[in-house]
Structure formats: structure tokens, C-alpha cells
Amino acid sequence: MNERIASGATTTSKGERTRLAIVQCAKQLFYEHGYERTSFSDIVEASGLYRGNISHYFKTKDDILRAVIDQHLADFRALLAQWEADHADPKARLQAFVGMITGRKTDLVQYGCPIGTLNTELAKDRPELHAASRALFDLFRDWLAVRFKELNRGDEAKSLALHVLGRAQGIAVLAHVYHDANLLRRETDQLKAWIAQL
């Protein structure tokens, strides 16, 4: 099995580690190539597992996608909780969100935003799966809105949250389109400056 994939496993049973390895492998493939352009066979090949092993856990590629979305949600919930533990100040928490963009600049420039590209693809081609992937944006929107409420911006908290989320997505899209890490840095610096002035 691919060591890079297996190294992320923190569960105890072999079955749980195998399932997580499949999800992590698919998550990366969906990000780099898109959901529709990634076949079940691609996942088999990249994971180093037999097709029957993967079929034991996931009957279809759609089942794998749902597990990938669940894993994204779990990872992001843990990240948001960490930011809350690390920063008492709401502005610092918002800055941590922007820092996530700059921290992933290489991937964003090469592939775009993982949740943005997935949502865009599914909204066009697989609307029955799009509701599940939209939960990723909902998670960030709701978390950002709470930060603005903490800044006594309750009446406009949701619209400000969407503004930050939209700005972040726009930065990721343009950095990817132009393959320009400097553009990403400049735009995130501006977003951080705006947050500092709130």
C-alpha cells in the first residue's frame, strides 16, 4: 500500500486503516484530477489495493465520494476547533482562516481550492451529490459567522461570513488560473488588513 497514504492513519484496526487509506487516496485523486475524471480503477491503482478490497468497503465511486466529504468535514472541524483553542480573539481566528489559504498556496496555485473545485464540478454534473459537498462550505460559513457575532456584528454576520468565504474562493480561483503565488499572497494580505480594521 502507498506509504504516503497509509501514514495518515490514526485508527487502530486494520480494517479502519484500510478504509481510511482508500478515502485519503481518493481525496487526493479527486482534488488533483476531478471527481468525474477519476475512475474506480484509478483509485485501485493509486492505493495499491486489490479492487475486491476496495469493493468490500465501497460499492461505488459515489460511496467513496461521500466518505471523502465526511473526511473533509472531520478534518475541517478539527482544524476549526484547533483555531478556537489557539486564539481567544475573534480577529485572530479569522486571520487563521486566511492563513489557511497562504499555507496551502502551492496546492491552490496548481489545483485550486479542494472544496471549491469539488463543489463547482458536482453542481454542474452531479446535483444529487452536490448537497453533500455543499456542507463543506456551510461549515466554514457558519464558523465565520460566529466569529463576526463575537465581534458584535450580529446583524451582518452571515453576509460578512459569505464575503470572506467568497473572497477566499476568488483568491484561490485567480491564483490557480494565473498560476501566481504572488497574486495569492497580495490578495490574502489585503484580506488580513481588512480583518485587522474590523
User: CA-to-CA gap between the ends?
Assistant: 49 Å
**Main CATH class of the largest domain:** Mainly Alpha
Order of helices and strands: HHHHHHHHHHH
Taken together, the total number of domains comes to: 2
Report the average pLDDT across residues. Answer: 93
Query: Helical residue percent?
Result: over 70%
Q: How many H/I helices? A: 11
Specify Rg, calculated over alpha carbons. 18 Å
What's the shape?
Answer: globular
Q: What is the CATH homologous superfamily assignment of the largest domain?
A: Tetracycline Repressor, domain 2
Query: What is the CATH topology descriptor of the largest domain?
Result: Tetracycline Repressor, domain 2
> From the helix content, strand content and strand pairing, which structural class follows?
mainly alpha
What CATH architecture of the largest domain do you see?
Orthogonal Bundle
Poorly predicted regions:
1-9
User: Count the strands?
Assistant: 0
Strand content: under 5%
Largest sheet, described in full?
none
Protein topology:
Layout: H1 3-6, H2 14-33, H3 40-47, H4 51-57, H5 61-86, H6 90-103, H7 105-111, H8 114-125, H9 127-150, H10 157-178, H11 181-196
Describe the structure.
With 198 residues, the protein is mainly α. The protein has 2 domains: 1-59, Arc Repressor Mutant, subunit A, CATH 1.10.10; 69-198, Tetracycline Repressor, domain 2, CATH 1.10.357. The chain has 11 helices and no strands. α5 packs parallel to α9 and α8 (114-125) crosses α9 (127-150). It is globular and about 55 Å long.
